[in-house]
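Two proteins were folded this term; both appear here.
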Amino acid sequence: MTRHSTPPHRLATERVAVSLRTQRAAPQSTRRRWFAVAVLACAALTSCSGAPPNPNPLANVPLKVASVDLPRYMGRWYVIANIPYFAERDFVASRAEWVLREDGRIDDHFYGRKGGFDQPESHYQFLDSVLPGTGGGHWRVRLFWPIYVSQLTLYVDPDYRYTLLGYPDKSLGWVFSREPTMDDATYRLLLTRLEAMGYDTSRFRRVPQMPEQLGQPGFVTPGRED
């Protein structure tokens, strides 16, 4: 009889999932820390062995950071699409809100409803630092001291309506918009930009921002893995 074992990256992810489920009744500060642990763990697992091979011929070409006008870049951004990963999986109506502090750092807020539109809104807060000499586009996101991850601004349109974010190894990526909806033509154009940067755009899934988007082609469904 052949004995099948769970792959190490899958087992580690499941352990994080169990740990996070035990935190649902915990105080907000504790839940925020566990959300950060999930982001870090899943980023590490994805970059190691959890992600499928990237078939894009430009997969190994380093990403270029886009320069941004930081004050103009601040404010509310809706998560239109991302490469699904554990920490944001099953969230709908998710958005980021960035606030520039007097010391030049950024208060980074994440909001979303985990499991459906009838669920209470969750809120997590992080602290970001802008790396000097990067034109404002390379941020170090502090999940909790002393743990940081790198977040790159890959593109922002001239009117600051849309932006693309990513990780240096292209394991994770996001499409953001100032509005909660985006027409298909604009979305395809932004995916084309990501593909030209070396992303495997087949991994991106749209995030429902309103109930009528649930079940639509290309959108994630809470509670179901694609």
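Next, the second protein.
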Amino acid sequence: MIGAMDLNASPLPEEDEDTFEGHIEEYAAQERIESGAEILRREREERRRRLKRDRPDDRPVHAYQPAMHDQYYQNKNYKSYDRNKLPPGWLDCPPFGQEIGGCIIPSKVPLSEFFNDCIPPGKRYSFKQVIHQLRVLGRKLGLVIDLTNTTRYYPTSDLKKEGIKHVKIQCKGRDAVPDNASVNNFVYEVTQFLSRQKHSKKYILVHCTHGHNRTGYMIVHFLMRSQSMSVAQAIKKFAEVRPPGIYKNDYIEALYTFYHEKRLDSTPCPSTPEWKRELDLNGEAVPDDDDDGVPAAALHENNEVTMTNDDVLGDEIPNDQQDAFRHFCYQTLKLNFGGRGNMQFPGSHPVSLNSDNLQLLRQRYYYATWKADGTRYMMLITMDGCYLIDRCFNFRRVQMRFPCRNSNEGLGEKTHHFTLLDGEMIIDKLPDSRRQERRYLIYDMMAINQASVIERPFYERWKMLEKEVIEPRNYERHNIYQSRNPYYRYDLEPFRVRRKDFWLLSTVNKLLKEFIPKLSHDADGLVFQGWDDPYVPRTHEGLLKWKYARMNSVDFLFEVTDDDRRLLYVFERGKKKLMEGSSVEFTDREPSFYSGKIIECTWDPDVQVWKCMRIRTDKSTPNDINTYRKVMRSIRDNITEEVLLNEIQEIIRLPMYADRIRNDSKAHLHTSSARRRFWLVEKSWGIYIVYLGVNEIFRYFVIRQSFFLFFFLIL
């Protein structure tokens, strides 16, 4: 029977090594005179002098650094870095931790045999020993993830010979925690490796320099995204398998901040291990090692900045993961995949309202909503993260929580997994203050937990959106805030989330005259949504948008030639098409500043030119020629607000609309009555009253000083 592996034990020596026991007498004799640290320093210096004198060519090979690079750091007065030295504290740092996350082994960095002259035989730790010990225990190493900031510690050729995959995710040490893109890359590599294991189990060795802070930081991220646990639980779990765990407070704080959790006072940071408290020859503490001697980036204060629609939200994800997500979106929307790299943003696009498609309002049943002047995003929610999908069809991860609905009316333990939504990001300017707040307005759902719903009518998808996405979030948030120890802080998420409202056509006049002027964000018109329509990807001829005349716009590609010609392009069949005779005016900057950019322009009928409104940083291509023609048609038809309202007044008198408006109004009143069950907490003269319902048994809990009186009344 194979015994359990002691991952903190020193590795077995290779056949060509002297055993550590053979040197016990020599070391013991010296220890009677000198301390262990003094012996180590003296022997290290002796080996270096002997190595330099006798074997000048048999030294570790390191990457060549250009003279300019060296001179730069000398000018910066950076301390010179000896690439041949051992990492501080490496000798006495335990080599392994125990298994975590199913098959992950945290480790300090194995050192190649080039370092053997600096390491006593019993302390040597290389990949040959790691592989040998795992084989003895019947375990096979399949993946090594290297988090160090250098390539000097070992060559990867030995791993490749053994068929072991090596992934390099370069992370600085010292006071710089790994960046979010590196974390996403790590989690993806581990997840993919685990998903490919079918018949035989293989292990993952994760190491930084000592296998504690960077390694622990990454593993905790993986645990948080793959299992249901809090940050405190994940940190504790890592500390149990790799004592003392993460011992840098900045790393622990970064984890709590990233996952929007409150850190309790009862979760202190472990003290620095004894083996890491190494002193130099002057008795000074050796600074933490970032592997190549390059200082970590200075920490900057997080000054408050003004939010704009052009801000880039979220963190990059690996290209392979993005390709997989793109395929899921195309499959959900029942689109052909095409060639790699040819996938375009598949979200539904409205068309401009003109005198022809205005008649669709008479033929089909429509609801209306305001057209927010924000940034278009689709959103993909998975159990390991939430991803914003921009108009370039790029995915970026944001840390958000979307619990599933619990049929038992309690807190849901599961989160959404492959739920696809559509919406727009706006920036609310809060009244009576200068504070801004991002809000994601969700107006459609295409998939829920991997099941496509695009063929269902819009009104069903819209109701599902509230029931399955919004209500579970609100319910959990309410209950978390009521508890004494909230483990998740919704208020720390990067933006708020709500479902966008749609109204009967009979309310359009109030929508234009009262609602839009009071909005805390910009709006540039209306959107008319077919109430019974399926979700139609890309251009949807039945999804109509009406803009104020001054806001009708086209997105062009603008270029300035060498002979100072100013050209506007749209796309036709995926290629640039020059708009002959079209010109554009700029009011704030020189035209050359806009060259090569996508610009949104509005038409000025008085001078017959386009005027630049803004740069579209969220788009990489201009409008298609067909979109351009539809916008021009809308501009020529000039459906003003007055014309639109007159048309709608006639439309809602049609029997089709009159009957459905009457029925929908009754249904709305019935729903409102059913929702009259609510909690109302009122404080008056020290008396707290909790009201539980209407037309039901309800209770008043009257609390005055230390007396509790219970009244049960029936209406």
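The chain has four domains: 104-274, 319-405+412-538, 549-645, 654-685. The mean pLDDT is 80. These notes refer to the second protein only.
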